[in-house]
Design goal:
With 316 residues, the protein is α/β, with parallel strands linked by helices. The chain has helices at 11-22, 60-67, 87-108, 142-161, 182-192, 212-223, 243-253, 284-287, 297-315, and strands spanning 2-6, 26-31, 50-54, 72-75, 112-118, 164-170, 172-174, 196-200, 206-207, 209-211, 230-235, 241-242, 260-264, 278-279. 38% of the residues lie in helices and 20% in strands.
Length: 316
């Protein structure tokens, strides 16, 4: 197949590119490199089945030309930061970017899209583990709102123009090439000062963590089962881990002793405005199509720390 991966030089996107290239697909990547890194896909640059386009997904003329000959779009390009920032950045790079992708598909009669959404669309769910048909969906962050808006656009375009769509609501994905999130934050802080670790919130925030290798397997497996309508899958581990235990794992994996953990609780236990305190996804639906995670949350965190500690040292 000829596949377009938006955000393909980023954390999850580049791992997806590795898998698609290794199985023999023809892959086009578009990435503006504001968050992605060219080094993540550099090994494919001389491969005739690979093409890299440095550009912005919000450029409609560019997207119209790139999408033209593709079979499937994997839409991963986004501002991945959940914390409060400039709302216009989330709107442009998450919601508006999705609109441009869908318009390029419509004009070029491309029918298949796989979209990486987020568990943040559920907000503070009252049912844990949370199933895909949970309602109402009340995101508590701009990031989550834009992901939910993107989902709605994809559903609307699919119903109107006959697209075949997969929407993946991802838990916290961790592993090599990640450049943001709690594990990266903790490692950076401890490399700077190994005597203390500041933790945002009360440390009791508890969420599901999934290693990126498991995530990629879920993305690929779901893409192989694209039907004639819209499919929505939760993608995560089957358990959760709190921030206190993540901090302990990071400290242990960095072989540090006598680290003083200090909690900065300014938002009622949350790490920041928009931080969901508890998240655990019901993944029975995607398990029914043959996928299940190899690692639980604790194992995923440990593996991610081992992968990231040297990467972060090298870029610091």
């Amino acid at each position: 197949m000829r596949i377009l991966v938006t955000g393909g030089a980023g954390f999850i996107g580049s791992h997806l590119v590795d898998t698609l290239m290794s199985r023999g697909d023809e892959v086009i990547v578009i990435d503006n490199l504001t968050r992605g890194e060219i080094e993540n896909v550099s090994k494919w640059m001389k491969n005739p089945r690979f093409k890299f386009v440095e550009g912005d997904v919000t450029d409609i003329d560019l997207m119209l030309s790139i999408v033209r000959d593709c079979d499937t779009i994997f839409h991963l390009a986004a501002n991945p930061e959940v914390r409060v920032g400039d709302p216009s950045d989330h709107f442009r790079n998450n919601l508006y970017a999705t609109y441009i992708v869908l318009e390029a598909m419509r004009v070029n009669n491309v029918k298949k899209i796989v979209f990486t959404s987020s568990s943040t669309v559920y907000g503070e769910a009252k049912i844990l583990p949370t199933p895909e048909d949970y309602s109402p969906l009340v995101p508590i962050s701009i990031y989550g709102a834009c992901k939910l808006g993107s989902e709605s656009l994809i559903i609307g375009y699919s119903k109107t123009y006959g697209f075949n769509s997969v929407i993946l609501r991802l838990a916290n994905i961790v592993g090599s090439r990640s450049r943001h999130g709690v594990i990266v934050d903790f490692i950076k802080k401890l490399l700077k000062d190994s005597s203390r670790l500041e933790v945002l919130g009360d440390g009791e925030q508890m969420k599901s963590y999934l290693h990126v290798t498991d995530c990629i397997e879920a993305i690929v497996r779901s893409s192989e089962n694209i039907g004639e309508d819209i499919q929505v899958y939760n993608v995560g581990s089957e358990d959760a881990i709190n921030v206190k235990n993540i901090a302990k794992i990071v400290i242990e994996e960095l072989n540090l002793d006598d680290v003083k953990i200090e909690y900065k609780d300014e938002f009622g236990g949350r790490g920041w405005v928009g931080d969901v305190r508890k998240m655990l996804l019901d993944i029975s639906r995607i398990k029914s199509v043959g996928w299940r995670p190899r690692y639980n949350s604790s194992e995923a965190v440990k593996l991610a720390v081992r992968e990231l500690r040297e990467e972060i040292r090298n870029v610091s």
